[in-house]
Amino acid sequence: MSCKPITFHNVPPDTFKCMKKKLQEAGIQVPPRNRGELSGSGVVADFEWDGQSNLTITITEKPFIVSCDTAARMLKKFVKECHGS
Questions:
Q1: What is the model's pTM?
Q2: With contact defined as beta carbons under 8 Å apart, do 8 and 68 qualify?
Q3: Three-state DSSP class for 72?
Q4: Closest CA to 41 of 79, 78, 84
Q5: Domain boundaries 6-82, corresponding CATH code
Q6: Tens digit of pLDDT for each residue in 9-25?
Q7: Which of 20, 48, 55, 71 has the smallest number of Cβ neighbours within 10 A?
């Protein structure tokens, strides 16, 4: 069961690049393109970035014991860490 999509606004190229790097450092596989599938730690999510500022992530798989809110908080943390860097 998928979680509801999470949309981030004001995600410029530097923030997007930083976020992908931090996700990879955390052991999450991220394709090199602006859209694709993230996977790691039992969580799978589709992402799409418009190349300018809008990023949408939809968690498509997660461990049963992890709520959608918890998985979303983890992803939001990566965006927040990179915002403004």
A1: 0.87
A2: no
A3: helix
A4: 78
A5: 3.30.310.80
A6: 999 999 999 999 999 99
A7: 48
| Domain spans of the chain, in order of start | 6-82
Structure tokens at 26: 């955390």
| C-alpha torsion sign, points 31, 13, 78, 48 | negative
Sign of CA dihedral 12, 15, 21, 22: negative
Which tokens is 27 given?
Answer: 């052991």
Residues 6+ apart with CB under 8 A from 4: 58, 68
Confidence band for 85, pLDDT divided at 50, 70 and 90: very low
By percentage, how much of the chain surpasses pLDDT 70? 96
